[in-house]
């Protein structure tokens, strides 16, 4: 192989290496878990027809959601505000802007705005197609 071809190949390898390693995207792992927030382990998921739903939910100041449960996996990201989640046996957790909540499955609970600005949530639901996102008590 002549010197010119070697230089061209080396040039392209250098460009490729520089391109691969020089991106400016950043990532933070917000949540990696095998359980819900009350430490209940996720069971083996058997989903024949998966359906993913993403909701934006706003809870106004002094507002409280009804007591409800979820029969599917869902994760809530607190985009803004302060959210307190309370179970029907009075366990509670409070989350602030930027925090993530692996929601309870099959356990009744409710969320309330415990701050002085609207709570804005982005909630990701994953379950069997047709499963209700929540069931009120």
Q: How would you describe the overall organization of this protein?
A:
There is one protein chain. This protein has one helix at 3-21, and strands spanning 50-59, 68-69, 73-80, 82-87, 92-96, 100-102, 109-113, 119-128, 135-136. The mean pLDDT is 88. It has 1 helix and 9 strands. It has a domain at 50-136: Sandwich (Jelly Rolls). The strands form 3 sheets. A 4-stranded antiparallel beta sheet has the order 1-8-3-6, with no helix packed on it. Strands 5-4-7 form a 3-stranded antiparallel beta sheet, with no helix packed on it. It has 137 residues and is mainly beta. The termini are far apart.
Task: Return the string of H and E elements.
Answer: HEEEEEEEEE
**CATH superfamily annotation of the domain at 50-136:** Jelly Rolls
Average pLDDT figure: 88
Shape: globular
- Quick one: how many beta strands? 9
In spatial order, strands of the major sheet run: 1-8-3-6
* CATH structural fold name of the domain at 50-136: Jelly Rolls
Radius of gyration: 23 Å
Structural class: mainly beta
- Please tally the helical runs, counting DSSP H or I stretches of 4 or more residues: 1
Residue fraction in strands: 35-45%
Low-confidence stretches: none
Could you tell me how far the N terminus lies from the C terminus, measured between alpha carbons in angstroms? Answer: 77 Å
Question: Regarding CATH, which class of the domain at 50-136?
Answer: Mainly Beta
Main beta-sheet annotation: 4 strands, antiparallel
What share of residues is helical? Answer: 10-25%
CATH architecture of the domain at 50-136: Sandwich
């Amino acid at each position: 192989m002549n010197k010119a071809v070697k230089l061209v190949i080396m040039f392209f390898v250098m460009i490729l290496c520089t391109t691969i390693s020089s991106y400016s995207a950043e990532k933070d792992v917000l949540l990696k878990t095998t359980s819900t927030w009350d430490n209940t382990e996720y069971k083996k998921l058997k989903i024949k027809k998966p359906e993913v739903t993403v909701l934006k939910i706003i809870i106004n100041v002094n507002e409280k959601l009804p007591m409800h449960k979820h029969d599917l996996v869902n994760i809530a990201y607190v985009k803004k505000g302060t959210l307190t989640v309370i179970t029907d046996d009075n366990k509670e957790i409070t989350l602030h802007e930027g925090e993530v909540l692996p929601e309870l499955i099959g356990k009744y609970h409710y969320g309330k705005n415990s701050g002085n600005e609207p709570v804005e949530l982005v909630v990701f639901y994953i379950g069997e197609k047709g499963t209700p996102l929540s069931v009120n008590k």
